[in-house]
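Changelog-adjacent note: as of this version, every example in the card shows the full chain rather than a window. The one below runs 355 residues end to end.
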Amino acid sequence: MRIATYNVEWFANLFDDEGKLLNDMQWSGRQDVTRGQQIAALSYVFRKIDADAVLVIEAPDSSRQRNGSMALEKFAAHAGIRARKALVGFENHTQQEIMLLYDPDKIEARHAPVGEETGKKGSRVAPRFDGAYRIDLDIDATEDIVRFSKPPLEAVIDSAEGTFRLIGVHAKSKAPHGARNRDEMMRLAIANRRKQLAQCIWIRERVDHHLDMGDPLIVAGDFNDGPGLDEFERLFGRSGLEIVLGTDLDPQDQLYDPHADQALESRLGAQPSSARFYIRDEDRFLTALLDYIMVCPRLRPICHDWRIWHPFEDPACWRNEKLQHALLTASDHFPVTMELNGPITAPLPSGPPAS
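Full-length structure tokens:
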């Protein structure tokens, strides 16, 4: 089974209010890319990755006027891909839904959130992801109330390999939007960083719950975060990604992603990347590792072949000029895939997890 996560920039702009693809020569949300060009590029990329399940980050939005899951299924039909059934979790108001696009001939998927519902006052025990989490993030003895702008998708997936849980994440960006000067920029950046860390603590609480229950678990998506990504990591001690991975915990409580592992081991050396952004003020491109597929110790022995479909860093993508161009046209993020082969019900291995 191939599982993928893919952040598609401005996917919502490719559909009208009825969910019809706007396959024309008008500009998309991407710089110098028309809607028709982005649709063609995305269709080609989705066909090439040929995944049984794709966690789509920044999926088409849902509201009273728009049906994002219907729009995504129409795209799947247009692209001619197997993963043609859409699952949506908690809808949000950011025009960037988190959805699972999957092959209904191979997989059954349902949204199965965990945790108690909360009111505006929230809960000190990690609640359902559409609720409010009360947590003290510093030493002022004052609780912060944290909410997700994009509540994670919690799916139970039944497959021939067995049943497992998937948590799909789009963590809040740390960019200090709206800052008018350097001091305000610093204040907003720190506040955003604190909120993101709280969200990652919340997710880690849910990971701990599933590990305690013995649930096979995958956590995937865009964390807008990683080791050494910004200067605030020194201020807070570690990245949100490290919190979710549980890098300070015993091996049986840690999640694993080989790209994250490589980045953590070589902070000053070459690192993999899954996104590429143009920095207009500096006239250069910034690359970053933001997208992950993390697995629990129980799944690690049967998970392999993690791959970032990077147009310059992946040799097969580099050699395929059409695929390279499509990846660069489709989004500012690149797909990440992982293969899951073998029965999930296999007994847990003795000793440390396999490499």
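Structural remarks: Helices lie at 35-49, 68-79, 182-213, 232-236, 240-245, 258-265, 315-319, 321-330.
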